[in-house]
Design a protein that fits this description.
This protein is mostly helical. It has one domain. Helices cover 72% and strands 6% of the residues.
Length: 143
């Protein structure tokens, strides 16, 4: 790394960007996730519940999607990371086995996510139609 205060690094044809603030945000996300997983152990011990191993895999998918979302430099990358994160959340919500409330909550969340994704993609397609660009850096430049 350089001592330049405006250090910026772009990968995959500007689909992922990185700078000091993005690295700091990713580190904060990882620390919060670590402490959340540490707090899960006393909950399991007190309530005598067994957590399936799929839960931890899904949590890792949420963290991966969040980390990609933080460094997204393009609307396509933003959308794919958001959907990766959302699908893992849908499954995590529905994992409350034996309760209809968790299935109902997952279904409502999925329907709400479908509508919001549709509106987001409509907005992105309108922006692309107007500007001809999907990269965030190209949108801030004057025509």
């Amino acid at each position: 790394m350089t001592n330049d205060p405006c250090f910026s690094f772009n990968t995959f044809n500007y689909h992922l960007t990185s700078n000091h603030f993005i690295w700091l945000s990713k580190i904060v996300l990882l620390v919060i996730t670590f402490f959340a997983l540490l707090l899960l152990y006393p909950y399991v011990k007190i309530n005598h519940k067994n957590i399936p191993y799929e839960t931890f895999i899904l949590i890792l998918f949420v963290v991966l999607g969040s980390m990609i979302l933080i460094g997204a430099g393009d609307f396509l990358t933003f959308y794919l990371a958001f959907e990766l994160q959302s699908f893992a959340f849908y499954i995590l919500i529905a994992m409350g086995r034996g309760t209809l409330r968790s299935l109902e909550a997952a279904l409502k969340y999925f329907i709400l996510g479908s509508f919001s994704t549709t509106i987001f993609l409509l907005g992105v397609s309108l922006l692309y139609g107007i500007t001809g660009a999907t990269h965030f850096n190209d949108l801030r430049r004057p025509c």
